[in-house]
Design brief:
By secondary structure, the protein is of the alpha+beta class. The protein folds into 2 domains: about 100 residues, Phosphorylase Kinase, domain 1 (2-Layer Sandwich); about 180 residues, Aminoglycoside 3'-phosphotransferase, Chain: A, domain 2, CATH 3.90.1200.10. Helices cover about 45% and strands about 20% of the residues. It has 11 helices and 12 strands. The strands form 3 sheets. A 6-stranded antiparallel beta sheet has the order 1-2-3-4-6-5, with helices on one face. A 3-stranded antiparallel beta sheet has the order 7-10-11, covered by helices on one side. Strand 3 and strand 4 form a beta hairpin. Helix 4 runs parallel beside helix 9 and helix 5 packs parallel to helix 10. The longest helix has 22 residues. The radius of gyration is 20 Å and the shape is globular. About 40% of the residues are buried. Pfam families: APH (PF01636). This is Phosphotransferase. InterPro entries: Aminoglycoside_PTrfase (IPR002575), Kinase-like_dom_sf (IPR011009).
């Protein structure tokens, strides 16, 4: 194991703070994958493990992650279903949390287990139920965001792009109810330990309509096994997807996926985004 302060992904100020917070910590494992934007380190100090997240100047998600820990994660963290906040510094883009044991659900037999999805539904309902805020402008903002994605570099065909622009401009903009959302709710952010599902990675957490947290699942796991969808909704307690709003949500998510993945060079994720666009262009489909 190597000393935490020597990791090349840390800025001088991040190293200084970590030396104050965890003076004897050593690195057990480097979990970083976020396209070089963030260092994610599993560290140990005096037999206790922690997760250190250190963002670069281009990391625009750290503020969201810290906000989630400060405002919304207590119902989970108090039961060890999410990490607990230990230290944080917003300006320095630095976060230390407790370490959660377990294995990622993604690409394991647990990804086909209805009980995992039932638990994930229960956890998500707890997150969404903490707060609700009325917002008259959310739909208009999201429409503008989708059009901005289409204004940027992408490989959506001109014909499909024209159809997308025309449809977005035709949409109504009714008031929305926003709740705390995870923003990337899917098996790659779920751990399973001793039969319990736990949650990690809150860099996309924000106030949004509840149904937006079902976008990834609908495009992936629900599409391949409707039994997982049934189990998830049993755990959640209802289905938050109003058909017209869900159609708009799916199409926005699809556009963002295809364009973002192209811009960062993730060909597989880009292909998924194009498939999501094709699927979502069937109006009102669940």
């Amino acid at each position: 194991m190597t000393a935490l302060s020597t990791h090349p992904g840390l800025s001088a100020e991040q190293s200084r703070l970590l030396h104050l917070w965890l003076p004897d910590a050593t690195i057990r494992h480097d979990h970083g994958w976020d396209l070089g934007i963030r260092s994610v380190l599993e560290v140990s100090q005096r037999g206790t493990r922690f997760i250190v997240k250190a963002g670069s100047a281009d990391d625009h998600h750290m503020d969201r992650e810290i906000t989630a820990h400060e405002r919304w994660l207590t119902p989970w963290a108090s039961r060890h279903r999410a990490p607990e906040l230990v230290h944080a510094d917003r300006p320095v883009r630095l976060l230390v949390t407790t370490f959660l044991p377990g294995h990622l659900v993604l690409d394991t037999p647990a990804q086909d287990d209805p009980d995992v999805f039932r638990q994930a539904g229960e956890l998500l309902c707890q997150l969404h139920s903490q707060l609700s805020v009325a917002d008259a402008d959310a739909e208009a903002r999201e429409n503008a965001r989708s059009l901005a994605w289409l204004d940027s570099d992408h490989r959506i065909t001109p014909q499909v792009e024209a159809q997308l622009r025309a449809e977005i401009r035709s949409w109504p903009t009714p008031p929305s109810v926003l709740v705390p959302t995870h923003g990337d709710w899917q098996p790659r952010n779920w751990l399973r330990h001793a039969g319990q599902v736990c949650v990690i990675d809150f860099g996309r957490a924000a106030l949004r309509p509840a149904m937006t947290d079902l976008g990834r699942l609908a495009a992936q796991d629900f599409a391949r096994d409707r039994g997982l969808e049934t189990a998830f909704l049993e755990g959640y307690g209802s289905d938050p997807r109003e058909p017209a709003a869900w159609h708009r949500t799916r199409l926005r998510e699809a556009i963002g996926t295809a364009v973002w993945a192209h811009q960062v060079g993730d060909a597989g994720f880009e292909a998924q985004g194009h498939a999501m666009i094709a699927a979502a262009m069937t109006p009102m489909a669940l």
